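Protocol step 4 of 5: obtain the predicted structure for the target chain.
Materials: sequence only (see below). No template structures provided, no constraints applied. The aim of this step is simply to have a reference model before the mutagenesis design in step 5. Sequence pasted as it appears in the construct record:
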Amino acid sequence: MQSVDLLIADIDWLITIDTQRRIIRDATVAVDEGRIVAIDKAAEIAKRFTGRQLVDGRRTVATPGFVDCHLHSSFALSRGLADEANAQSFLFDRMYPYEAALEGDDVRISATLAAAELLKHGVTCFIDPGNYHPEASVEGVMSTGIRAIVSRSSFDLTKSVLGILPERMIESTAVALERAEAVLARYAKSGNPRLAASASFRGLNNASDELILGLDQLARKYDTLLQTHACFSYSTHDSSVARTGMAEIERLEALGVIDERMLIVHSGWLEPEEVAVLAKRRPSLVCAPSSSLHNGYGNFVQGKLPELLAKVEAGEQRVTGLDNDTDETFETEMTRRDNPWRAYLTIIEGCDKACAYCVVPFTRGPERSRDSARILQELNQLADFGYTEVQFLGQTVNSYADPSPRKMRFSQLLVEA
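Step 4 output (structure tokens):
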């Protein structure tokens, strides 16, 4: 019997990301010296481990720690400041003046609040695109126990087609690069396993070619990410074309900075050739859907995110549910069910109801029903495996409309099932 520091016992549902994607009922997690050493059924863990500390996991769902790939920790205090604003007003009338007014203590408090809220919602790591007081961000987030990648914001162009930066945010290229490197030198290899740093230019329309190339060199020197916002609105696309004659990704490609170390946030409004560039260069793309929905940027309806998601699927298989012009549904191999007698079976996706309070029609698209033959085939497989109860899933299952020649309605499907 091995003694460990901590046992989180009798968890109702434990969701894994192992190769089998197991979901374990009545589970226990064993932790020793800050690391998970075992997960299994509670009865099995009890045979192998004793814990110096015991946490009751009953009435809980345990998940792996989530990673938020884009969060402005210094903006946690600004909620409601930029509602109902277009991209230009959001940035230059609201958020940039707010950011320019922040002092170190403001950033520390805001970052602490942001990290605490993330942890309460299961997020254990986040990437911050930066601000002008990164040391204060570090002080705030490190006090909470979360993991973070911090940055210093970098701009060197005073104005763009969208507007003029506040005076306090204006820096020369040399100063911006010097301050960015100071943060990388201090935090990129800090020795703290919960802390890292990245290079960051906050947007293409306020960054010169010299700044972008300089930050790319720093990212390579310190072996870290290079991140930026790009293509989040038609207005940033049009501004880039007006100033440089190139769309945003096209410009980054011309500079030779796009590769697998780069993290591009939003990436919705793209030219067709830019989709091909991203597929070839394979940077990390962060969709930021809540930002798009909050501000009505149209990244899902008018942008290229569905196509980009499809590119990362094995075998070039299409990802659906984000494009309002698709009639396809997810058809995947039947997955493991941990419950020995109950299974769940999706028969319809999306929703046509358009309720004012609900985002499902915008994120999952219109109603799309699965072929009845596929549903009944999977249902028979489940019966062969010994399942005695099967629950049909979908936003509106009673709207089921069989796309096959049989044209079965929901009531007919129930009878045949």
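Step 4 remarks: DSSP finds 14 helices and 19 strands in the chain. The radius of gyration is 25 Å.
Proceed to step 5.
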